[in-house]
Specification:
2 copies of one chain form a homodimer.
Chain A lengths: L2 E4 L3 E7 L2 E8 L1 H9 L5 E8 L8 H4 L3 E9 L6 E6 L6 E7 L19 E4 L4 H8 L7 E5 L2 H6 L1 H8 L4 E5 H8 L4 H9 L5 E5 L5 E5 L5 E3 L13 H16 L4 H18 L13 H15 L2
Helix pairs in contact in A: 1-8, 3-5, 6-7, 8-9, 9-10
């Protein structure tokens, strides 16, 4: 079923204990769409400036990613982020953010994309997420990401957005902040009560937690990899793997969701093994499926 | 197979967001032995002072816990610990420690306990752990716990201890400190290389990680409970459930270890739902087995 993502295509500068990569390809919609493209076609909606290198578009070219919705805006500059990771690399320290095109009008969803059924609204102002969502005809599943900044500063908009989506994907600190609940299971239950079908709480190296309206929790450890080089994009790649699988299966029943989360963690475990999206130069769907099998064998007792 | 634990029987004062419990029963050997007793008999080796309340011994009485090795030392005072938990309760702030009897000679392992086969050396000075271990005839499996203090201040003793045990059980921060590896999988592999058969890294609310000499990782989320009241004793209860199951099965093969870890997390998830060991007033082996079944269903995808 048709899958659409709205989010950023960005230029990142990243430093980790394993090296440094200035001006590399990044952005939530980039990580998401490449991850999701292993499972089926993806429609990408984003905007970059005229400074965006042509080279960086090659990553989309060989994959079932429709970039009709990727606007290249003359006179504008691409969103830029610089960050560094230390120690356990569980959190990035932001060194620089240049909003650039993100401070301008959001991209428009192309007419031919408006019948999309599975939608992922990557992190941005909830007001913008809602604006984009309203351009769609009749989505079957809408999942949104958000972050601490919006929870703190745009709560009324975020609450409004939540009324129009099926699910939230967010990290543990954000789930705690959104609900005021320190216990993650209690936080997930509180989020469901906001009127959602399901919520996915990402815990980085510790895996993910799913709670559905039926109140059946699903807990999943992360696929264990010792070769982490750059965690940037892990969350969006997780969401891409998850949504890619859901769209391919065309449902979001509990059993499909569980496997979708497992795919999400396997996809994320690959992308963090190299800088930017470089891991996808060699890794493919076979590698993802192998990790899924390994993960299943690892957790069985 | 005979299971023996050496560790503390203590008097704790605990404060959490859910209440306060002054002068309650605590101690690593207490939590361990009650947890393990759900799976079979346990031999307890510890020492308390003459201030230790008779009442507190009742918890051992109705269970297959042999307290022949629990010395009550005249003129001595029981080890006391006071701590408080806030927020996510993932770490205790220690408010007060009174070593008391821990600063004196360690207890002696009774003659009739010396043929024990499964041994858990709960956290204490590695020198003392080794001294206790040397009193045993021919253990089949020796597992030791340790903590940041000994890693920092008694490293030569700890390295020596590691040469005489089969496995370590420790938490994520301790594993990182012991190896200098930020990545937990890499840390686990480095610990195995110290000459161990297996290592278990406890991650609190995030579950546990097992690595064996065969280099096959096993990752397990924690049993999700929203009703956490007091995390004190979670780690020792985990170890008790794990070792209790291993001793009952009389082996520590990979498949047995996996199920032992799962039992450990289920036992720990129960004890943290009330202060001190109060949860065991009502919870029994049936509750543990129910959680094991639920956990298995939760993680299957």
């Amino acid at each position: 079923m048709s899958l659409l993502v709205t989010g950023t295509v960005a230029i990142d500068s990243v430093k980790t204990p394993f090296g440094e990569q200035p001006d590399c390809l990044g952005g939530s919609a980039t990580y998401f769409s490449v991850a999701a493209s292993h499972f089926g076609p993806v429609r990408l909606v984003s905007a970059v400036g005229e400074d965006f290198p042509d080279d960086y578009l090659r990553i989309f070219a060989g994959r079932p990613i429709d970039t009709l919705g990727l606007e290249r805006r003359p006179g504008s500059k691409t969103f830029r982020w610089a960050g560094s990771y230390q120690g356990t690399m569980s959190e990035a320290a932001t060194l620089d953010t240049q909003l650039n095109i993100l401070a301008e009008a959001p991209p428009v969803i192309p007419e031919s994309f408006r019948n999309s059924k599975f939608i992922f609204l990557a992190n941005t102002a909830p007001e913008v997420q809602l604006h984009l969502l309203r351009q769609l005809d009749s989505p079957a599943l809408v999942v949104a990401d958000t972050m601490n900044y919006w929870i703190r500063n745009s709560r009324p908009d975020l609450d409004k957005l939540i009324q129009h989506v099926n699910a939230l994907v967010l990290n543990d600190a954000e789930a705690r902040m959104l609900t005021g609940q320190a216990n993650l299971i209690a936080a997930a239950a509180a989020i469901i009560k906001m009127g959602l079908d399901f919520v996915v709480i990402k815990k980085g190296e510790h895996g993910a937690l799913l709670l559905t309206r039926k109140n059946e929790p699903f807990v999943l450890p992360a696929y264990p990899t010792a070769a982490v080089k750059d965690p940037t994009g892990a969350g969006d790649s997780f969401a891409g793997g998850m949504m890619g699988y859901l769209a391919a299966r065309n449902n979001f029943e509990q059993s499909t969701l569980k496997k979708a989360l497992a795919y999400g963690t396997c996809v994320a475990s690959l992308v963090i093994e190299d800088f930017s999206l470089d891991r996808w130069n060699t890794a493919d769907r076979n590698d993802i499926d192998n990790r899924l099998d390994q993960l299943r064998n690892m957790i069985i007792f």
